[in-house]
Amino acid sequence: MERLTGELKILSDEEKDGLDTPRITEDEEGQGKRKLYIESYGCQMNFSDSEIVASILRKEGFVTTSKQEEAELILLNTCSIRDNAEQKVRNRLSTLNASKRNKPELKIGVLGCMAERLKKKLLEEEKIVDMVVGPDAYRDLPKLIGEVDEGHKAVNVFLSREETYADITPVRLGTNGVTAFISIMRGCDNMCSFCVVPYTRGRERSRDPHTIVQEAKDLFDKGYREVTLLGQNVDSYKWQNENGETETNFAQLLAKVGDVNPDLRVRFSTSHPKDITDDVLYTMKKYENVCNYIHLPAQSGSSRVLDLMNRTYDREWYLNKIDRIRTILGEECGISHDMIAGFCTETEEDHQDTLSLMDYVQFDYGYMFYYSERPGTPAAKKYADDIDLETKKRRLSEIIEKQRNHSLLRNEKAIGQVQKVLVEGFSKRSEDFLQGRNDQNKVVIFPKEQYQKGEYVLVRIEECTAATLKGKAVSMELV
Ligand code: SAH
Ligand code: SF4
Ligand code: F3S
Fold first, then answer.
1. At the topology level of CATH, where does 418-478 sit?
2. Which of 94, 105, 232, 463 is deepest in the core (most CB within 10 A)?
């Protein structure tokens, strides 16, 4: 059973393994080099950043390891999005305390959003931390590690208006060799009142499209068959020439990456309802390899609450976007959401509006949370966190229950269909089965037979749960 509180998506068994366990990443090269152990928390951007950090430190003679006890340097790439995300890291730091007592030469660094939010305070609050480095300061890591080696504490939390790490080729960590993330922009200029990201990630900036396309090409040449373009708000991607004219918008970038190879699937995340355009939807329609799936966070179904959240759209606008998606891309397009239960002043009626919005859309899946006040955000300054925890949890569980029903309904529609699945590896439960994803980003399990990781396989869907589709490969001639 999934938990009913905190962060939650209806997860397949295959995905559940990753929940709550930070991803640990390694490469096995480099005997005798300094050993680095990185743990990443939070969103995909953070995982992607850890790959940039590994790349920067590899040049400095470090090699990543999955065995914490071997490491000389432990880096935690942290998340601040909700209080429980920070608690997880604090608990982790206290368990690391014991390791450090037995091994005084061990150095510990905190990277990412918690480093940025707490800055020097983190060194005072968590005595075992040697180094605090914000998301735009990773190029400075070699120098900072040098300071730590000399016995000092080191901090760099400078936020940049330009840094995109465009020239750094990430070291792919913990990879399945089939799917990879490409960061296309950093930061966020929206000011959703509940959200800490603009403070931890700084101003929005887009990465040079040539470097993005090149990275996609390199990945394809190495055998990867799917890339996900990452940004907090990908639809506002904008690359300008020296005269400040927009040369490439997101729809155009999507087309450029789509052109890399018809066998390279392209996904993207996250779309903001205020910015996603018909142009993007038409590009998705035109390119068979740009996947039919959109993550479109709603946050609430109540226009009054959306206004307090400063999402800059209302319920009608959101539903109109859903209608556009369905008109242009058809019922088949997968749509997922993020939803927050119990935001400041949320009434029972507002909550019902969220549930009825879900009924209208029938999302394929969702990431659902109860509101966690974040210090320094506009909501924390302006509004009381006035919904009691029990009510937040009850509303969240109603949202989750509804989502479970919708996920099941949507999955049942797939039964009998033949779907193109990109194989990512063995099913977690058995090596007799393979696991991959369909166009709509849903996990599909089927008997292995002669098929391999990295292949596209046509699978006839035979059964499902709310989280997983199951079927059997069909040969091309039968379709
Ligand atoms: N850029 C993305 C979201 C990034 S954060 C977007 O705009 O959609 C991922 C999700 O965490 C958000 O969509 C929101 O649902 C949730 N979230 C953010 N701040 C939160 C908070 N203070 N409490 C609870 N959930 C929060
Ligand atoms: Fe946060 Fe809003 Fe930016 Fe998303 S768009 S990262 S929710 S401020
Ligand atoms: Fe967390 Fe920072 Fe991502 S707050 S969700 S790691 S941008």
1. OB fold (Dihydrolipoamide Acetyltransferase, E2P) (2.40.50)
2. 232
